[in-house]
Design a protein that fits this description.
This protein has 176 residues and is mainly alpha-helical. The protein has helices spanning 8-17, 23-31, 35-43, 55-80, 88-107, 132-165. It is elongated, with a radius of gyration of 21 Å.
């Protein structure tokens, strides 16, 4: 099982490559779905990988997750004065991509995953596609690549601001 924070790797890389996405919805989408196994392990409620770990669960959870992202972005805007431009369509897409990535990574590792629930309770569609070690390495590499790309983008933005701050001397029209 990729330890839940490892799922962030996909979200960080995807946001680094497609920065129009909603980072809050994307990153939350990659990890929040593991509330289901947490409730099962802590309280014995539900299943380890039940309804939320299916495409049906993704579709149902996409809209509430986008709403959560909207609330979080408003709080960040108010308390930290961050310039987050919230767009519902990008938030919905980001939530969906984060949630789908999570269940697809998990589906390769767990035989009990019912991806097509409630249409069928058949399990193990992708089970065995990769092992736990490979998934953790892949997600770690994605995280590192994403952080590197984001750092380079940040540094390039800083350099461009500094270059733009220097005045360009006027050149004479003719050399007579």
């Amino acid at each position: 099982m990729p330890f839940t924070p490892f799922h962030l790797g996909f979200g960080v890389l995807l946001y680094a490559l497609l920065s129009f996405l909603d980072p809050i919805a994307l990153l939350l989408g990659t990890v929040i779905i593991d509330l289901e196994p947490a409730f099962y392990l802590l309280f014995g409620i539900g299943q380890l990988h039940g309804v939320l770990h299916s495409f049906f669960g993704v579709i149902v959870f996409t809209i509430p997750l986008s709403f959560i992202s909207w609330v979080v972005s408003k709080l960040l805007l108010r308390f930290f004065r961050l310039d987050l431009r919230f767009r519902w369509h990008f938030s919905l897409l980001s939530s969906f991509l984060g949630l789908v990535s999570h269940i697809l990574f998990d589906a390769g590792l767990y035989p009990e995953m019912m991806l097509l629930y409630p249409f069928t309770r058949r399990t193990g569609y992708l089970f065995g596609f990769w092992d736990n070690r490979l998934a953790m390495i892949l997600l770690s590499v994605m995280f590192l690549l994403g952080v590197i790309i984001l750092a380079v983008k940040f540094l390039l933005k800083k350099i461009n601001k500094r270059v733009a701050a220097f005045p360009v001397p006027n050149e004479p029209d003719n050399f007579e």
